[in-house]
Every structure is written in structure tokens, then in C-alpha cells.
Amino acid sequence: MDRMASGWVNGFIGMAIFSGSLPATRVAVMDFDPVFLTVARAAIAGVLGLGLLLGFREKRPARADLGPLVIVALGVVVGFPLLTALALRHVTSAHSMVFIGLLPLATATFGVLRGGERPRPAFWLFSGLGSALVAGFAVTQGLSAAPIGDALMLAAIIVCGLGYAEGARLSRHLGGWQVISWALVLSLPAMAPAALLLLPGSLAAVGRPAWIGLGYVSLFSMLIGFVFWYRGLAQGGIAAVGQLQLLQPFLGLVLAATLLDEAVSGSMLAVTAAVILCVAGARRFAR
């Protein structure tokens, strides 16, 4: 398997893992405070990341990599989890999943600004079209119904796109799992004490679904998914493989419907089918 094909396979696996993040977060915030959920998932994943780095005796990153690692941490360890957890207090996971369709455009943009990539003009046409379809659908569903939730989701998309692009750039010489592990470790001194400080007074009141949601976002969304995702972006290109995120709403909607019994309309599925075609077009003209 060549490097490009391997990048798309790894990227798809990472995207599939991430597709469960918002439904799991939606379940978790029913019983957990959003801020506690954010610091707890980062602390749990940080301990695991530290164990991996120590177990494989990884060298410390160079001083020049510390700034970019902080950007990764602020984007995907703190920013995106916190903003989405807050947003899901106001909107359903099915509604928020639609905004994930904007992530490819944000990731590709930061891939150009930070990663030095230069996709062909046709790539931007397909990427922009896919994002426009997602944004247009959100508008037709009535953004005014929950403006706070929608604003939080848009902010989450921006910081996440930056974190993805920066992490992919670092993965080219540090490795995918090493990047997310170091970012988690850098966050650990702040996240671990905060998790203990914000620990709910009565854990007995926390339902089993919330614990499962916390476990998923801590292990899969915060660590395992990034192992595949950053490797895929580094191998296949940030802008190109990043377009796989256009498929994430489809998988997320399926999970929201099957696990949370949330309504998934025919228009949601139609938009998702359309963006799949945009992914295919963007992939063809990515380089």
C-alpha cells in the first residue's frame, strides 16, 4: 500500500472513531458538567499518553516543537472538547453533527497557512461546495432556535481545524501518537488538578450512560482516534485526507439515531449523500 492510500485508510479509521464523539459527549453532559467532562477526559487520556511515552522511551520533543504542541493542546485537547460540550447543552448531537461538515474546509485552510500545502483550484471548489451544503442545511433547520449552541459549534470548528493541521504538520517528524500524547502531557498539570477539583460531589447520581460517554471520549476521541487521524493527515496530506470529515456527519447521525433515538430527517441524509460526492471530487484534485 502506497503512502497516499495508507493515509486515506488511517484517516478513515480516525474519522470513524471521531464520529462517535458528539453522541458520546451528548450522553455524558446529561449528568456531568461540561467543564468537568473536558478536564476529566483530558486528564484520563493524559495519563494514558504519559504511560505510552514512558513505555516506549520516547525522546522529548525539540524546543521548537513546544509552541506547536501547545497549539495542538489548546485546539483539540481543551478548545474543541469544551466548546462542543457547552454547545451540546443547547443543541442535539444530530444538529451539532451537521457543523462537523465545516471541519474539512477549516482544516484545509490551516493546512495551507501552517502546513505549506497548495491544493489545486478545483479542490477548493469541491471543499467549498461541501461546506456550503452543510452550512445551508443548518440554516434551513433554523439557527435562531439555539444561537448560543451554534456559535459555540462554529468556534469549536475553527480551533479544531487549527489543532488538526498543526498536529499533522508535527506528525511528519514526531509521529502521530507521539504528537497527541505530548499535547496531552503538556495539558496534564492543569487538567488533572482541575478534574479533581470539579469532581461531582455525588458520583452515585451519575448514570451508566454518562460513564460510558466519558470513557469513550477519554479513550477513543482523545487518544486512539488521533493516532490514526494524525498519521493519515501526515501521509496523505492535510487538505486531502481532511475532506474525509465530510463523511463524519453521516456516521454521527446514524449513531445519534440508533443510540440516542434522535430524529434524523431525510434532508439530513440527502445532504450527507451530496457531501460524499464532494469528498470524491476534493480527493481527485487535492494535489
TrEMBL record:
GO terms for cellular component: membrane. Residues 9-130, 148-279 form the EamA domain. Keywords: Membrane, Transmembrane, Transmembrane helix. It comes from the Bacteria. The chain crosses the membrane at residues 7-29, 35-54, 66-88, 94-113, 122-139, 145-165, 177-199, 211-230, 237-257, 263-282. It is found in: Membrane. It is a multi-pass membrane protein. This is EamA-like transporter family protein.
